[in-house]
Prior knowledge:
heterodimer, A: mainly alpha, 11 helices, 83% helix, globular, B: alpha+beta, Rossmann fold, CATH 2.40.50.140, five-stranded antiparallel β-sheet, 24% helix, elongated
Amino acid sequence: xxxxxxxxSGIYIGFIAVLLYAPIxxxxxxSFNSSRSRVTWGGFTLSWYVxxxxxxxxxxxxxxxxxxxxxxxxxxxxxGVPGALGIHAMGRKRYKTMMALTNIPMLNADIVxxxxxxxxxxxxxxxxxxxxxxxxxxxxxxxxxxxVMPRIQQMNVxxxxxxxxxxxxxxxxxxxxxxxxxxxxxxxxxxxAFTLSMDDFVITYFTKGAGVNxxxxxxxxxxxxxxxxxxxxxxxxxxxxxSLLLSIGTGISAKKEH
Amino acid sequence: MSNIILKMDSISKSFDGxxxxxxxxxxxxxxxxxxxxxxxxxxxxxxxRIIGGFVRPDKGRVLFEGKDITALPPEKRNVNTVFQKxxxxxxxxxxxxxxxxxxxxxxxxxxxxxxxxxxxxxxxLEGYEKRDxxxxxxxxxxxxxxxxxxVNEPELLLLDEPLGALDLKLRHGMQRELIKIxxxxxxxxxxVTHDQEEALMMSDRIIVMNKGIIQQAGDSKSIYxxxxxxFVADFIGESNxxxxxxxxxxxxxxxxxxxxxxxxxxxxxxxxxxxxRPEDIEIVPENMGYINGRVMSVIFKGAYYEIKVQSxxxxxxxxxxxxxxxxxxxGMTVLPDNIQIxxxxxxxxxxxxKDE
Lengths: 258, 356
């Protein structure tokens, strides 16, 4: 009976996994297909990857994407962590209000955020790399706050007080006691922000100026002219990179929890 | 040097518009074991946090050895705290935890090693230097926390319900150890608890608090035997508290019966509150005591029987080594010495028994 149950649940999980990952698997397979046709297998090749790395436009977009992801995640951490500490220190009513306000940008449709930011930016700054960076920082901050907040709540506040009590100044106590305690939350917040920034298309599309391209906006632009197999190779690389980052991120927070 | 180590001078503090302390005064003498005792929310922890430097009072001054330290941050005060939650540093082992304060003070490695050894001996944790703090039991963690505070040789040690999270048996052991530690290091202890038994056992002086106001201060015996108001009587141990009339000196009328007592100076025909401890009432045959009543319940508690006797509208609690027949009428008697007369509460703040 138990074996039967195991088999059934195995089949079910397998079915779900196929539904989730088969399309991506097809994409990955296609990136190694030497035939230009999408329905026939013409043999294994790495030529699309070679072409990809010889394409300056793509490399440029890749660098922009990574810079954007890294910069926006780092700045969101610098703003979000002190923000989370501040919100945590508020009274219950204000805490709830602030957390609700923090949640809104995450629930908000990307297209709304994108258009709203664009309207805002065109009044003040030229649409460029800078405006995209600001947009990414703004949608990353709530995720940083949300991933740090549980660590703050778990943390025993009297540990910080004990540090002060034993003779440490506030700065020392922050860097030697508070920060190490919060580090897992900060790292997982960073990786989440990084991947979100890499993934984003809609908000980037509306806030970028002419000439600035991230991978996602560039792929979109290329697709309009017909899909080239290099794009499969590129998408495969993005998928691998993002899943790598995500597993590092969850790995860190899981390890620290136990 | 004055004998007063710490003085709180008309301290006021409110949180979110709610006054916790107003014009609170407190003096602690050198080498005293003082306990602040009261229900949660009575302001006792706030007092400790103000002395520790974690809460800034809205008004008033904190004087430490005569110097005003109200504005000093915690790290500049010669006071250390043992927190309620053990609050050991999780990323450090036992030795590193204890040495933390000394390292900050840039003491020599030899000095630190000796001090850590001494402190571990003091709290009975020899050989635990390299242990991970998370692998320790609650009692052991709290000992490390005490050691970590004591190595800094504070003039005053603040203990915020340090045994609150331990089970009963462990708590009793730790209480004895704390007294031993106190005697050995000769540091002034200011202890906060809501456990009256703990307070009675350890303290030189108990300060009973409620709603930010000192209800009574004194040694264990005077607090237990001569509570000054109904709150103290009710909070310290179980007791029968009943309204009565002080007929004249040495005579009080309880439930219409004139009973001799030892109190004087209340005046004649003055309403008072009377406290009689359950263990001080003796059950006798009907009409042989002062007051008659019907036995409503008898519960065996191990060392004694807890007996409830209903007399008119008052239910008397009696503790006796002999059981009484349930449902029967009995008499009750009490020695004059064991009747404690108190003034009726003058202000609402003292009157808490009724709104709880």
